[in-house]
Amino acid sequence: MALIQPRTLKGFRDYLPAVMIPRERIMETARQTFRSFGFAPIDTPTLEHLEILTGKGSEETDRQLYSFKDNGGRDVGMRFDLTVPLARFAAQHIGTLGTPFKRYHIAPVWRGENPQAGRYREFYQCDFDTIGTESVLADIEAVTVIDSLLRAIGIEAFTISINNRTILSGLLDSLGLGDKTTPILRSLDKLGKIGLEKTAAEMVSAAGITAEQADRVLRLTECDGPAEQVFAQLPEIVGNHEAAMAGVNRLQEIYQGAIASGVSPDRIKVDVSIARGLDYYTGVIFETTLDDLPSIGSICSGGRYDNLAGLYTKQHLPGIGASLGLDRLLAALETLEKLSSTSKPCPVFIPLFDADFRDDYLKLATNLRAAGIGTELYPEPKKLAKQLKYADSHGFQYAIVAGGNEWERGEVQVKRLADKTSQDITYQHDAPESLIAALKG
Amino acid sequence: MALIQPRTLKGFRDYLPAVMIPRERIMETARQTFRSFGFAPIDTPTLEHLEILTGKGSEETDRQLYSFKDNGGRDVGMRFDLTVPLARFAAQHIGTLGTPFKRYHIAPVWRGENPQAGRYREFYQCDFDTIGTESVLADIEAVTVIDSLLRAIGIEAFTISINNRTILSGLLDSLGLGDKTTPILRSLDKLGKIGLEKTAAEMVSAAGITAEQADRVLRLTECDGPAEQVFAQLPEIVGNHEAAMAGVNRLQEIYQGAIASGVSPDRIKVDVSIARGLDYYTGVIFETTLDDLPSIGSICSGGRYDNLAGLYTKQHLPGIGASLGLDRLLAALETLEKLSSTSKPCPVFIPLFDADFRDDYLKLATNLRAAGIGTELYPEPKKLAKQLKYADSHGFQYAIVAGGNEWERGEVQVKRLADKTSQDITYQHDAPESLIAALKG
């Protein structure tokens, strides 16, 4: 019979152990962090009724959607994000769950876009949201969660940039430009690329506003410096307009609350220039960049929204949430050489040095595992050098070698694979303490 | 605009926090256990080329497959198990990974079968396998992993039944019935339902063997009792046939090795009557039942196979693995009332009792989290009774109440929600130790 060629679909990938181990570690850290704030896990189906997914979709998401007719003739689609399923879920269950409802959801999503370098048609999202409250405490908490999460992952040098959309929208209102928010935001989004003068010119031509109005808008985005300084300048820049000042005050409250929660002031930047595109945020927004690799972009972004589930329910559900960019973060950690390269999730390797002592190796492995030390026992009685090569190439930390002489003396040889040093350590099955201490120390 | 009705597809379900919390806990326990033996995580795409999935499929799996043409006109399908993707994965990557290759894979699969009570069209599988070795140590380890896994989950009363397929196949060979294995197995599978006599009659009629041959086969399945007794009887039952005896000896080796590894003899049953249907196992097979709820069936099954990836590669890849039935296990734990019902993943609740002290609540929550105590702070300044009702209904263990008087005295009130008792505990932001000790104690 002809063989079937083993291959994955274009835009999809296998995760081999060396990539999957840190991936899983970060997901577990995220779960622990979310849980420690009272966010609870949920899961929703991969497939949804197509009308649920296309309800609010842009043309772009509709085009990228994996959709088909199932065996029962239903139009179905694979979720392309975790926000639409959350909206559907909240509309369906919020009566049972009550508010505030705090959930996290770590799961894959699918988009049939043309894959670029480092982007795939299947990828994980890692979202947390608090729904059903407009309290500033939920905004403060979101900043605190991001801070805790990155530090738990082992990242120390990062900046959480925060802004409040109502500052700009208030300013635009005060200038009588409330109805031109979309073209102005679209121009503002290009600021980083095309610079101040061209952005101003585009605002005048594309949004049809005066040069003076464009100047007022751009003065806001230029407001920079330490938080205290920004907060001192903002009242004058927004002309003390009431709605804009409410936005400034709330942003200041979030900033101060995050610091009261223990977030280092060095790690929060009040940045009134960030806009987060044209998406659905209506209040505070944030982005998170790595100080050592800002070019990779935001690795954790989010914000406050007015009404999550308006397509599915009349119940008004405001909320706030953010999403960790798992793949982007892993790529960054790899670039920064902060990922240990191992294809084994446990530190200790026991070669099957002398098969006559098989039960002793089994007992040794059990004793180490019982002490919380992950241990792999090689299954074949190959030459020791070959077995140790396997241990080396798979990234184990220790090999524990014992043959007849060692078992008789009540000792084992502990090899540190990184520096090829060895040490004899006392060991008996009923007295494993010295060995455990040596491996943990 | 008309609302879209929020609903899930037939046969699919949402996981709300109260169900998802224990689910996630068990998956994490499984990961930890697998890792402690040196099994490494992998992941494969949800979608595969259709030919990969239908290569070996039975008519039944083909009918249940979710398949469609993607936007690029490719025939694709959603995986219906984790074994076919593993076979494809191994064929593709084993050159890079080397053998023995030990992996686990915890992921959803999809089958468009008609949903019955408690069965869904999307469900998780939780598999571990060791590929590329025929060593009995890998067989012993599989039994040990199952034992460790269930104990880590908190189950003490269970039985791992083990058998070796080569015992029956050796016996059939010795009787000259090697070519009738399939109809004989099909009849044997009915033994539990239709009893000894009818099974014997069916073997004679359906497989065309003599009554005496049927009797020899059925004597094997009747061999019961303590392991030592079974091993003592088997040589005579299989007529000391060489291949069958090799199977008996290997089974005994597995039994003894598992006990040397610390598995309690009470938890292993040598049961030469189990067959695991007509599937692809060729050596040791096992099933695991809960002593307090045997009716739910096997919650962890598996076995040794000859050649995993023959459809995709010429490389001969023997292996052994098993699969934890996550949903069945959760249903059993629920029936046995061993699932704690909580919709919150953290123990401590802080009501926002007096909003003037917001920063104090934030600091208190941060201090507890830093000590590893998950803590949720309520975001709205509602009446205390209302906030405590929220805490009660969500299953928090403690509420920590503090207002102006308490903060002044350097105390907080710790309420134990289960028994409504309260206690005042000394607390200051720079001296949280007494409170942490009280909550951990």
UniProtKB/TrEMBL annotation, chains A, B:
Catalytic activity field: tRNA(His) + L-histidine + ATP = L-histidyl-tRNA(His) + AMP + diphosphate + H(+)
Main subcellular localisation: cytoplasm
Compartments in which it is found: Cytoplasm
Keywords from the named record: Aminoacyl-tRNA synthetase, ATP-binding, Cytoplasm, Ligase, Nucleotide-binding, Protein biosynthesis
Domain Aminoacyl-transfer RNA synthetases class-II family profile intervals: 1-351
Pfam families the record matches: HGTP_anticodon, tRNA-synt_His
InterPro entries: aa-tRNA-synth_II, aa-tRNA-synth_II/BPL/LPL, Anticodon-bd, Anticodon-bd_dom_sf, His-tRNA-ligase, HisRS-like_core, HisRS/HisZ
Gene3D superfamilies attached to this UniProt entry: Anticodon-binding domain, Bira Bifunctional Protein, Domain 2
EC number: 6.1.1.21
Subunit structure: Homodimer.
Similarity remark: Belongs to the class-II aminoacyl-tRNA synthetase family.
Protein name: Histidine--tRNA ligase
Gene responsible for this protein: hisS
